[in-house]
## 1
Amino acid sequence: MTSSKGRGYQFEESLLFELSREGRTGYSFPERSGAKRTPSSNLLRKAHARLPELSEPEVIRHFTRLSQWNFSIDTNFYPLGSCTMKYNPRVNEEVARYTGFAHVHPYQPEETVQGCLQLMAELELYLAEIAGMDAVTLQPAAGAHGELTGIFLIRALLGARGNPRKKILIPDSAHGTNPATSSMANYEIVPVRTGKEGRVPTSVIEQAMTEDVAAIMITNPNTLGLFEADIRKIAEIVHAKGGLVYGDGANMNALMGKARPGDLGVDVLQYNLHKTFTTPHGGGGPGSGPVAVKKELEPYLPTPRTVLKDGIYRLESNRPQSIGRVKAFYGNFGMLVRAYTYIREMGPQGLKRATELAVLNANYVCARLKDAYHLPFESGQMHEVVFSDKKQKEKGVTTMDVAKRLMDYGFAPPTIYFPLVVFGSIMIEPTETESKETIDRFCDAMISIAKEAQDDPDLLHKAPHNTKMRRLDEAKAARELKLRFNFS
Ligand SMILES: *Cc1c(COP(=O)(O)O)cnc(C)c1O
């Protein structure tokens, strides 16, 4: 068995267990001198642990080759709608590695980490300013975690007013984390149907909003990439009945520098620093989901809070109305450093320009692809655009086929089959960091795939053709997991 079957530099990869040779090791230290300590025998394994035995270069090559199978934002265009796969600037990484940030311990005395605390305090100010809110917590570890924190804050405020209420209104175009959050916080979900224009109809909110409703969770621009132009009116209706407006801020990359949710009636909003503020996503690092609130919710924010007293930053925990901690220490600090760096690097004008370019790029994709693909809602895209497979379906070609075929052209497939309100949706978010040439190459590929769907549907059914793995049986892959290597 060889470790590297393949053409040229295209390696196949065996499991470490298959590469293993008995007795081979990855280290060579001298025998230790002095007395040996033997652990008591009841702590020792009865049988030999069947771990792979390899040399260090074999292990390094194995994992390096596997890492090269990854498709990432550093490899090519990654237009995953809703996820905002912007480029992660390297200056963020440089600053996050400064020893004063990278090597501090969360239990160090406050006097010795003043710079870190200052960075957190200033980042809170920037995020409050960008959203038009009064206070921010940096603790939540991701968007969904920020949502949960925000709903806990709403529950605490309404509870203090005498009744936490029972229901939360959620538009049917919402991200799945919105209903998940609400039900985790013990609220009943009242779905709100998207109107014909792809927006939340105020008439529906007027009907649904009762004194039993704690809040509406609303995403703006929504997941169809459309601005909820009636947001002010919706907020008025909700506020008039004593409810609060939760803004899902995952799409803040379409607003920052241009409009502030706080000015539009939003009371609580989570940011996704790994989307809007260029910190890495998923496998690239942990997320961060700061929550910004209006003044009346500030007393309930998680502790500790960073406060400046007599010229010294302190972590304050004595806040009796706080919902308590939602995360160990102070949040994913490394991500805070990256977001801070990005905001300082861009400045107010730069952030505004980023928003403009994100919206321009999405509209450009929309304009180039709307003859080739069905556009269910056409009324002023923001930062992303949602198509469907309606035209391709006539030839039996689906969104899944288009997504798989895009891999043959070297692109990451966009988000598919979300949002659920569009049947067979293809959700494209180019972000502001892509050049016109890249976006054109992508649009050319999409147009060429639409043509293939007419001429040769079977080619698409069998795609991808040029990838290491061909199309998988996804149901089988999910149902029949192969988690163990068979030693015999
Ligand atoms: C990404 C996203 C979320 C969830 O954020 P995570 O950081 O992935 O937990 C919530 N709502 C919308 C609209 C999103 O796009």
## 2
Amino acid sequence: MDNETKFMITCMLFAAICSSVSSDEWKATVVKSIDALVTSCVVVPCSFSHTGGNLPSSRLRGIWHEKDGTKRNIYHEDPTLIKDNFKDRTKLVGRLGQNNCTLEITGVKDHDNGPFCFRVELVRTENNDPTKDKFFFVEDCVELNMLTEPLKPAVIKPKTATLGEPYTVTCSVIHTCPTHVPKLTWNLDSTNIIVHHKDIKQGNWETQSILTVIPEEKDDNREITCTAEFNGGLKSSETFTLHVKRIENYNHIIIPAVVGIGTALLFGIFCIFMAKKYKNHIAELQNQEGTMWNRLSRLSRR
Ligand SMILES: *[C@@H]1O[C@H](CO)[C@@H](O)[C@H](O)[C@H]1NC(C)=O
């Protein structure tokens, strides 16, 4: 074999190895940072993908660990391998078989800031010989931004309410705990409240409460409060003052005006009509007079 052939073979081998590795390409996608409210829960969105064909989900193992130590697990399918202060607080809410590695942490503590990394392992057993198991894995990490105070709800409302007409106010709050959503309450009784939950991406969710009331006179200057109670018990609220306006009513001006103008018009038409009629009558009389005179003069000439 000459040198050139050797070089060719080396190249081909190298290419073959490269393509076999990249045909089994893994990718994990974890949100880079997410707010987490102390005492509440946080759900960290995570997904992974691979290009190596169908995966037997029984061979997949999803682990979450602290970034500075692959052995410091915060989630593992074997609970004895989870760090003490994360025991019973973490749960894989995504299904690994659906490439979903979403993690839930409950009872968030102010030192839970991470970073935490997801690691998926695929165990490939050849001939059921554990010594020949092969592991493939990827990692991606998230940082938790700790909030010790909950975010305030935001209220969107029309400037003024009109007496007796439906008035709609929207109260919404952003959170990262979609498995135990915050409760929004109002300080007044209404049966007309609609609640929505929206995924606003990157692990953030919005809970919205839409209240519709029909204001009465006594509701003028009333303080309306929307309170958000988060999982874990922390609360925040937003208050505003309702201003109730009467419906502007111009009937007391419009009705007499219409009646007045209408009467004037009718009277006008009547006058014109009468004037015409009278004129015709006079003309007729004059004609009659004329013929009478002619007759009389003819008679006198005889
Ligand atoms: C992953 O699972 C979570 C929790 O069940 C779910 O909310 C989310 O939509 C899933 N993500 C995808 C990409 O399917």
